[in-house]
Design a protein that fits this description.
This protein has 244 residues and is mainly beta. The chain is built from three helices and twelve strands, in the order αβαββββββββαβββ. The protein is 11% helix and 35% strand. Strands 1, 2, 3, 4, 5, 6, 7, 8, 9, 10, 11 and 12 form a twelve-stranded mixed sheet that branches.
Amino acid sequence: MKPAFAAVFILVICFSTVLFAEYPEYVVRQTTQKIVIDGKLDEADWEAAQSFGDFKFPWWKEGAKEQTEAKMLWDDTFLYVSFRCDDKHIWADHYDINSSTCLDDCAEIFWNPNPAESMNFYQFEINCIGNILSLYYNFEKGTKSGLHTIMVPHIGQTIQGTVNNDDDTDKGWVVETAIRFSDYPELSKKPVPTAGSIWHLGLHRCGGKTNQQYSQWSPSQTPHPNFHRPQDFGKILFSAEKVR
């Protein structure tokens, strides 16, 4: 192969890799037992559920990359989501619903149950003490006019450490939530997914006051932190297979 042709060939391959980059996918399996939303994750189903894998830190500059283990399960009524978050300094200042929980240690779920509506999604931002910012984004109508509060899911949480005390070293915190499918009909058109249904999904983590980090399951392709990028969401597939 001539050098000039080889160089062009390599450029084409690199461009194609960027243009057709694969976004992550996750298979959501069905529960076999009752899931108690208490933030403990002590059911055998949670133990058997597959992790989403290590979160990425697309805007990392310095500081410890504190990891997040996220998992999902489902049944005919609920989508269950859990976050187990490593955190040496747990912090939360927001105790009122729909306040700026993203400024605290916070886990976030952004989801679109109708991929045809590519720019619209639901958003939950749940801080380490279980308080939530709950919204529906409709970018086609404009960010401000398209925002409104939606129903709050069941939330349980536990803390392994102390909140708002940087004099000690904490272990982490857990958030567990159950989202009732029938509460969110605006995008899905079908209240409950069926086996084979595909949703678009973003899972995110904010690092709070100390060691503020921004991490994601499916990284946003932006130079600065921006979680509101539905075009960069990953995919979840609802499976008829039991988790165990």
